[in-house]
Amino acid sequence: MKIKMIGVDHTKAPLEYREKVAFSQTRAIEFLENIKKDENILGCVVLSTCNRTEIWISYKDHLKVELDNILCDFKNINIDDYKKYFVYRENKKAVEHLFMLTSGLKSKILGEDQIITQVRNAVELSRNNNFLDTVLEILFKNAITASKKVKTNVKFNKSSFSVIDSAIKKLESINIDIKNKNCLVIGNGEMGRLAGATFVKSGANVTMTLRQHHKGDVIIPVGVNIISFLDRIEVLPQFDIVISTTSTNRYMLKYEDVCKIKLKEKVVFIDLAVPRDIDERIFNIKGVTGFNIDDFKIEESELKNFNENIEKAKNILNEYIENFYKWYFNKDLINSVFNISQKVADDTIFRINKIVDDNTKNIVEKASKKSIEKLIFCLRDNMKVDDFKNFINIIENNYLDNNI
């Protein structure tokens, strides 16, 4: 198997390290174009979320430059500073990690819903930029399908929510009542829309910033008001809660701007962006309570209640993982199977050639091919990979090579 991934995630790296390797969509496209220069890399997927960055590749033979060096060179960071934070996975370990990840079993919020969409978007980005090969296409497709089945069949109760729900729970734990509070959401991406909709549902009065050139080309959650993104600083005194969720590489709220403004007596700033949107010095202003993405997670004590459901999820994932392995290790034999089935059909037609009409011949030929293919694939699903390969080789060498 020729699959590799390198990642930096919340379990190893502090936020200040994760944000330096995060990718916006534009930068992810640039990275894909850069990595195409190695003709041994057949496909690549860049997954960048608020909690992790992962680079996935399939390749042939060997790599000209190792994946960690490619990433560090592109990001202009010192590899020696990052080695201890990188996670390296290959082949089966990488495959099994992807299935767990896509199902939300490796998220800070166990069973969270957003990750499936984030993985799907990463795949689409690679596909749209012509850098998704068949191996990664089938791998990620199976992972996404398995994750949907997990979501449908396994309920994680309290943990089955997004980071936004965790933020609301955090506010409630420190006696901040959200109902009727004025809430400003900076950013109209997926996270911003989810934040807006969730806070509206919780009873807040929500306003969302919108860049003027995007007007008419975006989705605004029901019940959410909009203002110009350019007005985000001057309207801050109106709001009790400020949430920033953009995917840019610079602060949306700078300390130098905010410290000059008379904010409400008590105001909460929530930074859900990676890289960060809010200068953390703002959190030290009198009356301000501040949080970033690392402040929201499910407590370890709660995880004990989910063991049974985790096992259910893993059983579902294992079924799809095995399906991928069967496809991967036998993909080079598919043409051989079709060749064998065609040979059997030809042999059958030869033997009945003189006693049936053309229409019957066509029916018999199709039926023969389907029966043989069904038989062979049944054997594939119930044999060890090496045994199945030997079986195909025996058939090809002792049947296909002989004349009728």
List the helices and strands and how they pair.
Blueprint: E1 3-9, H1 15-18, H2 25-35, E2 41-48, E3 52-59, H3 67-75, H4 79-82, E4 87-90, H5 91-102, H6 114-128, H7 134-153, H8 163-173, E5 182-186, H9 190-201, E6 205-210, E7 225-228, E8 241-244, H10 255-258, E9 267-271, E10 288-292, H11 300-303, H12 307-330, H13 334-352, H14 358-381, H15 385-400
Molecular structure report:
By secondary structure, the protein is an alpha/beta fold. Helices cover 47% and strands 14% of the residues. It has helices at residues 15-18, 25-35, 67-75, 79-82, 91-102, 114-128, 134-153, 163-173, 190-201, 255-258, 300-303, 307-330, 334-352, 358-381, 385-400; strands at 3-9, 41-48, 52-59, 87-90, 182-186, 205-210, 225-228, 241-244, 267-271, 288-292. The strands form 2 sheets. A 6-stranded parallel beta sheet has the order 7-6-5-8-9-10, covered by helices on one side. Helix 10 (255-258) links the parallel strand 8 and strand 9 (267-271). Helix 5 (91-102) crosses helix 12, helix 6 (114-128) packs antiparallel against helix 7 and helix 7 (134-153) packs antiparallel against helix 12. The model has no long low-confidence stretch (mean pLDDT 85).
Q: Nutshell version of this structure?
A:
This protein folds into three domains: 3-159, Beta Polymerase, domain 2, CATH 3.30.460.30; 163-298, Rossmann fold; 329-400, no CATH class.
